[in-house]
Amino acid sequence: MVRSPSRCPLLAWSAILLCFTEFAFAEQSAAERRGLIFVREHCSRCHAIGKVGESPVANAAPFRALRLRYPVADVQRPLLEGIHPAMPRFQLTPSQVMDVIAYLQTLEH
Fold first, then answer.
1. Backbone torsion region of residue 22, taken as left when φ is above 0, otherwise alpha when ψ lies between -120 and 50, otherwise beta
2. How many CB atoms lie within 10 A of CB 62?
3. Nearest to 32 by CA among 63, 65, 77
4. How many CA atoms, within 13 angstroms, populate the side-chain half-sphere of residue 16?
5. pLDDT tens, position by position, for the chain (109 residues)?
6. 9-15: Cβ within 8 A, 24+ apart
7. Where are the alpha helices (DSSP H) in 6-93?
8. CA–CA distance from 76 to each of 34, 43, 70, 72, 101 (Å)?
9. How far apart, in whole angstroms, are the C-alpha atoms of residue 106 and residue 109?
10. Using CA atoms in the order 25, 71, 57, 27, what is the torsion angle rounded to 10 degrees?
11. How far apart are CA 17 and CA 38, in angstroms?
């Protein structure tokens, strides 16, 4: 099968991006990875969860801005109780809370 020359740069950039993503993921601790997986699954519908990007819901604060509102170490209770009324209720275990906090701390750098 012969590939179209115009697709080669796209494939090359896709491979580079995949490698970079895998490298960045490998640089995280196990707790940070678990926290990222949790927020990606439960929070990214409304909030921007990364270091860049806009939240899908306009009035949902990007997670990187949460540290401006709350000290990251102090979000244990709000994570357990819900930060705002429109937020879905979660029953996080203490270890899940610590994982999410570990991930949020990666956004401070």
1. alpha
2. 16
3. 63
4. 6
5. 555 555 555 555 555 555 444 445 457 799 999 999 999 999 999 999 999 999 999 988 899 988 788 777 777 777 777 666 677 777 788 899 899 999 999 998 6
6. none
7. 7-27, 30-42, 63-69, 76-81
8. 16, 16, 11, 8, 8
9. 6
10. 0
11. 22
Tokens of 72: 């990251």
Neighbouring C-beta atoms of residue 72, cutoff 10 Å:
18
Closest CA to 107 of 43, 58, 45, 57: 43
Given the structure tokens 């909030």, which residue do they identify?
A: 47
Which CA distances in Å does 9 have to 3, 18, 65?
11, 14, 35
Place of tokens 């939240």: 55
- The pTM score is 0.68
Q: Would you state the structure tokens that stand for residue 23, as one six-digit string?
A: 């490298």
